[in-house]
Request: fold
Amino acid sequence: MMELSNKRVLLGVSGSIAAYKSAELVRLLRKQGAEVRVVMTSTATEFIQPLTFQALSGNIVYSAWDDADRGDGMGHIELARWADVIVVAPASADLLARLRQGMANDLLTTLCLASASTIAVAPAMNRLMWDNAATKENLAVLKQRGIHVLGPGAGGQACGEVGLGRMLEPEQLVQGISGLFSSGILSGAKLLLTAGPTREPIDAMRFLSNRSSGKMGYALAQAAIEAGADVTLVSGPVALATPDRVKRLDVNSADEMYEAVMSEVAGSDVFICAAAVADYKPANPSKEKVKRKDNNVDLALTQNRDIVASVTALPDKPFTVGFAAETSDIEAHARAKLKRKGLDLIAANQVGDGQGAEVDENAMTLYWADGSQHLEKTSKAKLARQMVTIIGEHYRATTRT
Ligand SMILES: Cc1cc2nc3c(=O)[nH]c(=O)nc-3n(C[C@H](O)[C@H](O)[C@H](O)COP(=O)(O)O)c2cc1C
Reply:
């Protein structure tokens, strides 16, 4: 199994003799399915050539400020957003000190400061540098801020000494990095999820549908798996691969989605309706293809059954999360829908003007009865992980009471 499929790893390399090991790390990360971009400090480029990382990652290597420039000076922010995780390996003592101070005096430290992603560091240094009170204090503060520390290991060092301070071996780092993606917050929970659009038949060939690509729902399925849930995905027609370990049931119309959800929902702990289910369907679909010459397409519409409301009306209803795609008055509409449909949580986002459907990035606000949380624009994969964490926390809170 590829443990890092679809993951975007931004690998920071700083000035340590261990930098050569990171070349192998890039190779192993890619072997596990990750996309890797490498950012090197200028000192790191004295230890190993950027060309090595370029060849192994298949991407250009960033080091100087303008390496990330796209013409508007905002390339570093774009790069920070791109990453699902930033891993600094090796992390020099100096780099750890700069991170602790919140410095942004080169591209790598700026990216770390400008990122909402998970950050991990793999220290590599002489044992006395590692044992120094300054380094210890820096690490303690970084850990307290939520930065993950991978290693170091013990053993012989480049300086001839023996002790703690060696960077972990690339294989161990890959394991540590994979572990960063499994939060466990939904461990043991049975999660039912819908995704994608529905197709409402007009005749044997034609249908009414919408712009949903299914990307958000599929990212949620992946994030829920990573969080330890047992995931069933009821999917409308999309061009996306099924995430590993997800049970996928394919449907076309809103009626089929309704039937699939109602037959799967028993025993579910969490239900997320991320599908863009058509509210209306043609009332009298034709079994035959309607011919142009017949000029008799019947587009009278009738309402589809409300999947979410049917689930929340169940006596043993799961913790239910809905979506509200709005073009205006987002909060008012989302809160009204939260109440009307008996949802526990609703994710609201702006659609139209190239936002929301079909694109790879999104921003949204989650609302619940007495609170809300805004999630900044980022990749749908990252947004899904943030959402799953919040859903997991709320779900756990309800099961505790
Ligand atoms: C040959 C050599 C090896 C070094 N190895 C390390 C090391 O393993 N760990 C470390 O923290 N610093 C090491 N340093 C010192 C760092 O390169 C130095 O602190 C540098 O300023 C780090 O810059 P950077 O964090 O921007 O990459 C080494 C220096 C030299 C000359």
